[in-house]
Amino acid sequence: LGALLSLLVPAQATRSPDCGGILTPSGLSYLAEVSKPHTEMVLRQDLLAPRAPDLLLGSPKPSRDQISFIKVIDLSLSLVPEAGLRLGIEADLGIAPSAAVPRRARLSLLADLHLDLSPGGDLQLTTSACRPTLEEVQSTEEVESKSSSLDLDKEINVDKICLEVSKLLLSPNEQLMSLTAPFPVTPSCQVQYLPLAAPVFSEEGITVSLQTTFQVAGMAVPLPVSPVPFSMPELASSSPSHLTLALSEHFYTSLFFALERAGAFNMTILSPLTTATMAQKIAQVSSLYPEDLPVMLRAVLRSSPRVELEEGRAALKLFLTVHVGAGSPDFQSFLSVSADVTAGLLLSVTNTRMMISAAVIEDAELNLAASDVGPVPAALLEELFLATIREEVPVWMNAVLSEGVHLPHMSSFTYTDVSVMVHKDYVLVLCNLKLQARPG
Q1: Which pLDDT tens digit goes with each residue over 356-392?
Q2: DSSP codes joined into one string, 114-155
C-alpha cells in the first residue's frame, strides 16, 4: 500500500523551494502602523453596535452606557521565535453614561498569532490565545479609589473582539491568499508561487520558502530539476528593509524554460540582406530565387535556455537554430545556422515586478547546421548574420519581457526603496513595503 501511495503522489515528495522571503521586524512594525486605522474601524463596528435587548425594545435612549469614541493608541506586532507573533493593542474608549459625567476606559488586548498552511496550500493566520482587559481610567478630579472593571465588562462585550482577532489587521488572510494567486508573464504563460511549509519564526523575521510553478496555455509545465537545493541565504546583519526576497538561479532558468515552452522565443527577424546580395557571396542562392527577395531569419530554441548568476553579473545563454530563407507567406529555408548566444541581463524591480532586460550580446558563436546551397565557411556566416543577430535578438527578448515578472506580493502592497544584488547562484532583493491607497 505504501508503495502504491508513493506512486500516486510523486510530485509532493520532490517539491523543493527555488525562492523565498523574509519579513523583517521593520516590516512587521510597518504592517502594524498601517493597520491602526483599520483596527479602529473594526473596533467601532464591534463595540458601537447596539446590543440585541436595546434593538428589541426599540428604546431611543438605552438604559445602559454607550461608547462615544474609540482611539487606538498603540498597535504592535512582535516576533516570538519558533512560535509565531504577538499582537498588542491599546485603545482608549469614551463612555457616555445615562447619567452623571462621561467616563474613559482603556482596552488592552494581547493575542498569540500563528501562520500555518491551510489544506488548500495557502498561508493562514490563526489565533491560539487572546486576552482582552478593560479598565476604567480615573481622572484627577475623581475619587482616587479605582472602580471595578466588572461593571464595564457587563456593559461592553470585549470577548466579541477575540472571536475574530485576525480581522483587526488589514484583512491578513485575504492578503496571504493573494500571495499564491497566478500572475501573467505573457498572454499564454502564468507564474504562481506555492509555500512548501509553514513559515519559520526567528529573531531575523518570518521566513517563507516558496516553489515557483508555471502554466502554459493552462497546463502545468514540468520544470527542470534544480541541481542544488535552495535555502534562504543568511543575512550578514539585521536589515533595515521591510522585506528580503531571494530568487535562485534555478528560478530564472525555470522562467526562461517556461517561456520557451510558450514559444516566446520563436523569432522572425527581417535581415537587411536580399537574395541578390547573398548571391554575391553564395552563388547557388541565385538559382533558388531568380527574383530579388528580402531574406528572413526564423530562430527557434534547439535546447533550453540557461541562466548563470555570478557576483554582480547575470547572463542568459540561448541555443538557437536560425533558419535563413525567403518568401512570404510561403517561407522557404535554404540555410540553417546554429547560434549559441550569451546575453548580459539587467535586473531591477518596478512596483512588484522583476524587470529583466537583455543588455548586450556578450558572445555569439555561429556554425553551419544544414545547407541547400553548399558549404558555407563560419567566417562567411558571421559576416552575413552576426551583426543582425547581435542587434535583433536582444530587441526580441526585451519585447517578450517588457511587462516584467510578478514577484510574490500581497495585493494591497507595493515595493519601494528597492535594492537588487546579484550573487553567485541567487539574486537578493531588499525593499520596503508601501500600502497602496484603495479607490474610494
Answers
A1: 999 889 899 999 999 999 999 999 999 999 999 999 9
A2: EEEE-TTS-EEEEEEEEEEEEEEEPPTTS-SSPPPSHHHHHH
